[in-house]
Specification:
Blueprint (H helix, E strand, L loop, with lengths): L6 H18 L4 H6 L11 H24 L10 H16 L5 H15 L4 H17 L4 H33 L16
Helix pairs in contact: 1-3, 1-4, 3-4, 3-7, 4-5, 4-6, 5-6
């Protein structure tokens, strides 16, 4: 890709590349940083390293928010670039006080236009916009997401148990098939 970024935009781009490499290789970011890694433009910016390590550390919380916000799209179905860009923006929105939420969103949308699909920029903007609205309203989005996911999991468990009970009741209500012995032929072996 011929897109060249500078400053914090470059750092976010580098963080995306590190997170992508870690995910593809099923490794922690710290392991990627300790080994060989590839950047499209470098050297590695300190802010990129901060973002990549921070996202990796907070991934369970960030993924809970993403899973709860991305209705109709599981994390595994989500484009890997979009998923990692969303993680970066969420991390900045939640943990990097010196960056305004609107800046995090705008930067994520710009990077989605550069690295994602045709729909990526609208997709990430929609999710991040909903999170920003909640943050502005004082909602602890991580706690809220974890609670909604816990309730959803409990509902799914209850539904599965009810289906199992119903199947067991239907099986018990069916009459047992009569076993008819085969007639003896009178021949002995």
């Amino acid at each position: 890709m011929s897109t060249h970024f500078g400053g914090r935009t470059l750092a976010r781009s580098q963080a995306l590349q590190l997170l992508f490499q870690a995910e593809v290789n099923s490794r922690a970011v710290v392991d990627v940083l300790d080994g060989e890694y590839a950047l499209s433009q470098g050297p590695l910016d300190e802010y990129a390293e901060r973002l990549a390590l921070g996202v990796d550390e907070r991934r369970p919380d960030l993924d809970a928010v993403l899973a709860e916000r991305s209705t109709g799209w599981s994390l595994s179905r989500m484009n890997a670039v979009d998923r990692n860009l969303l993680r970066i923006a969420l991390y900045e929105m939640l943990d990097v006080d010196e960056v305004d939420i609107s800046v995090s969103i705008d930067e994520c949308v710009d990077l989605a236009k550069a690295y994602g699909t045709d729909e990526s920029s609208r997709f990430v903007n929609g999710i991040l916009g909903r999170v920003a609205d909640d943050l502005e309203a004082g909602v602890d989005v991580v706690a809220a997401a974890r609670e909604r996911l816990r309730v959803k999991a409990a509902e799914e468990t209850a539904r599965a148990e009810a289906e199992e009970d119903e199947a067991a009741e239907e099986a018990a209500a069916e009459p047992e098939a009569e076993v008819v012995p085969e007639p003896e032929t009178g021949e002995s072996a």
